[in-house]
From TrEMBL:
Its main location: secreted. Coiled coil: none annotated. It comes from Streptomyces lanatus. It catalyses: Hydrolysis of terminal non-reducing alpha-L-arabinofuranoside residues in alpha-L-arabinosides; Endohydrolysis of (1->4)-beta-D-xylosidic linkages in xylans. This is Beta-xylanase. It is found in: Secreted.
Length: 683
């Protein structure tokens, strides 16, 4: 974004086109956009803030059909066996993480979330543990196992099954016998949860079990009493995992009651291992609907991808058949999540006969279209001034979805200049009521800070907030949801790189943007003078060492103005560049380009006023256009890490717009945030 303070007369003449009237009519916040429909399970679940996951077996990751479906459909991954005790600590003190790392790193690179399964379980437990005969030894071994495994994946696992299947089947409602129960007594579960909380405070800690879906079962009641007791005594527990391994009839009729009763204790519920004998579409739909009807049911995991991948393979219990085709239950699930099943895929043209077919995932993700149309929400986020923040506009949003929430950072503009604000919410209907946390109260400090970009650095396990000061600056935070966790600003550069100094003219150095591939990180920035710059550093050096600054793209000043975004397109080798331009009508809009590499040259995609990426002429509005500007914003990403991966389908873009009649002081313009949803997605 452009620093208001330094707006010269040159700039004002362009902006005068906006200054049609001095009267600023406040734009009322409207309801959330109409339910947006996606065509994959993960994308659709994400629209209600949920995840849709699957169990993954490391041994199958070489199978292209399997990974094609995995990457297309699922945004959470549970290692099926690779994080269990027999896999991670087969002999005492000897930890092996090869297969678990393979799944975790792969998922993270693709923006998929991870569930941890499982730390303390009587099954798949190595013999050396079950033969321990001494309580103190076992307690030490258990705590060490929990701590070591959780440390390995610290900050990377959204939910951990801390204890699995500790309750007995049948009418007792008591714990089952196990080495843990027999030596440590009932308290072993509490001990495990306390140890887990100190090992990774960011992970949700779950108790996971099967046959606890029917509210009237003694086993369900036993688990319920334990969770109630834990909450009453402050024993750390955040969620209950209901495995949901169902017979042909699917869930019991009181399944939703069970979910809401657990949730009412103050824990999340998750369906963690769903499979249903013979995969009746109705049974699947009933299961998903029960979760959708309970606000604290935060996600669903199916226990495998194709029937042939299932631990119950003879019962054909999953959503994809052995060939990887969607079964009727798939469509039932997508519909129950609120999505629209796609029409059956057309046969490939005859000319392609003999060419091996690409996996459908790859086909779906093949290429972004070269024309776009969008529908916009009304204004979703407006400034919330307080006693010390007399905010006129909220601008330049950056957004990630993490842990079931949208996390938004934005610039706030007032007569005294620019600083940053943070808010989070579970879905767009709640965006308008979220609390605004002003970051000038944190170590980020007061003074000129604007145009933030947020991402998680997976290897460093740190969130980065990149923003402009008079340099390119950043702060870090181990916990995105803690506004007070940000570090004081540091600069990426010692001073403005020479090539920028030589080309900036009367422009401004603005809108810094970081994106990494596996080898390098790149820092893009604009100069309000027709140049997009790119610096680079080795991935392992980040955030240090940005050098080799070059002009990555150039055009006339207003055609390549500012607010660039660069993304990796999920499942493809394509990168997408968006740059904000000022059109012949004086209004802001976005042009787009693609490239096969981040350091490559950019080929126009939808890059003109008549075929824009996003401009008033390809956006429809709910009831009259609340803005004619489609200005500085952020794509809704498929993940949240430094690869900045976006989906290839059903794009959404959070942007700034404003009342077309507003004018006057640039710093006091009434910018608001709204959401675009692509309406011409073909996949
Ligand atoms: C199963 C796996 O799917 C199989 O591959 C393995 O042989 C046995 O375990 N409850 C659980 C899961 O918590 O870990 C189990 O997974 C299925 C039942």
């Amino acid at each position: 974004m452009n620093p208001l303070k330094r707006l010269g007369r040159r700039r004002a003449s362009v902006l005068s086109l906006l200054a049609v009237g001095a009267l600023v009519t406040p734009v009322a916040a409207t309801a959330a956009p109409d339910a947006v429909r996606a065509s994959t399970l993960g994308a659709q679940a994400a629209q209600s803030g949920r995840y849709f996951g699957t169990a993954v077996a490391a041994g199958r990751l070489g199978d292209g059909t399997y990974t094609g479906i995995l990457d297309r459909e699922f945004n959470s991954v549970t290692p099926e066996n690779e994080m269990k005790w027999d896999a991670t600590e087969p002999s005492r003190g000897q930890f092996t993480f090869g297969a678990a790392d393979q799944i975790a790193n792969r998922a993270q690179a693709r923006g998929q979330r991870l569930r941890g399964h499982t730390l303390v379980w009587h099954s798949q437990l190595p013999g050396w543990v079950s033969s321990i005969r001494d309580a103190n030894t076992l307690r030490g071994v258990m705590n060490n196992h929990i701590t070591t495994v959780m440390n390995r994946y610290k900050g990377r696992i959204h939910s951990w099954d801390v204890v699995n299947e500790a309750f007995a089947d049948g009418g007792s409602g008591q714990h089952r016998p196990s080495v843990f129960q027999n030596l440590l007594g009932d308290g072993f579960i509490e001990q495990a949860f306390r140890t887990a909380r100190s090992a990774d405070p960011a992970a949700k800690l779950c108790y996971n079990d099967y046959n606890i879906e029917n509210w009237s079962d003694a086993k369900t009641q036993g688990v319920y009493r334990m969770v109630r007791d834990f909450k009453a005594r402050g024993v750390p527990i955040d969620c209950v995992g209901l495995q949901a391994h169902f017979g042909t009839g699917g869930p019991p009729s009181n399944f939703q009651t069970t979910l809401s009763n657990f949730a009412a204790l103050g824990v999340d519920v998750q369906i963690t291992e769903l499979d249903i004998a013979q995969a009746s579409p109705t049974a699947y739909a009933n299961t998903v609907r029960a979760c959708m009807n309970v606000a604290r049911c935060t996600g669903i995991t199916v226990w495998g991808i194709r029937d042939s991948d299932s631990w119950r393979a003879t019962e054909n219990p999953l959503l994809f058949d052995r060939g990887g085709n969607k079964k009727p239950a798939y469509n039932a699930v997508l519909t129950a999540l609120g999505g629209t099943p796609a029409a059956p895929a057309a046969r490939p043209p005859t000319a392609n006969r003999g060419t091996p077919a690409a996996p459908r995932g790859a086909t779906d993700a093949a290429a972004l279209p070269s024309r776009y149309s969008w529908s916009s929400s009304g204004t979703l986020i407006a400034p919330k001034p307080d006693a010390t923040h007399n905010i006129a506009g909220i601008k330049d949003p950056t957004v990630v979805q993490y842990n079931g929430k949208y996390h938004v950072f934005a610039s706030v503009a007032s007569s005294s200049g620019y600083n940053l604000v943070y808010l989070n919410f579970t879905d767009w209907s709640q965006a308008g009521s979220a609390t605004h946390h002003y970051l000038d109260r944190t170590a980020i400090g007061s003074g000129y800070r604007a145009a933030p970009q947020v991402f998680y650095h997976a290897q460093q396990r740190l969130w980065y907030l990149v923003y402009q000061t008079s340099n390119a600056s950043f702060s870090t935070n181990p916990d995105i949801s803690n506004p007070n966790g940000w570090s004081a600003p540091r600069n990426f550069y010692a001073s403005m790189p020479d090539i920028i100094r030589q080309n900036i003219g009367n422009g401004h150095w603005v809108d810094m943007w970081v994106i990494c591939d596996s080898a390098n990180c790149y820092l893009f920035s604009s100069d309000d003078n027709g140049h997009l710059y790119r610096s680079q550093t080795a991935a392992g050096q980040f955030p240090n060492g940005f050098t080799n600054t070059v002009i990555a793209a150039q055009d006339s000043k207003y055609a390549l103005f500012e607010a660039s975004n660069v993304y990796k397109v999920h499942g493809t080798n394509q990168y997408l560049l968006l740059v904000e331009a000022i059109g012949s009508d004086g209004r802001r809009y976005f042009r787009s380009w693609t490239s096969g590499s981040l350091a490559g040259s950019w080929t126009p995609l939808a890059a003109s006023e008549s075929n824009p990426f996003a401009r008033a002429n390809n956006v429809t509005f709910p009831s009259g256009a609340w803005t004619r500007d489609i200005s500085h914003g952020e794509m809704i990403r498929a993940g949240y890490d430094q690869t900045l991966t976006i989906p290839s389908c059903r794009l959404q873009y959070l942007y700034q717009g404003m009342n077309p009649n507003a004018g006057g002081d640039y710093n006091l313009l009434p910018w608001r945030l709204g959401l675009l949803t692509q309406t011409n997605s073909t996949c």
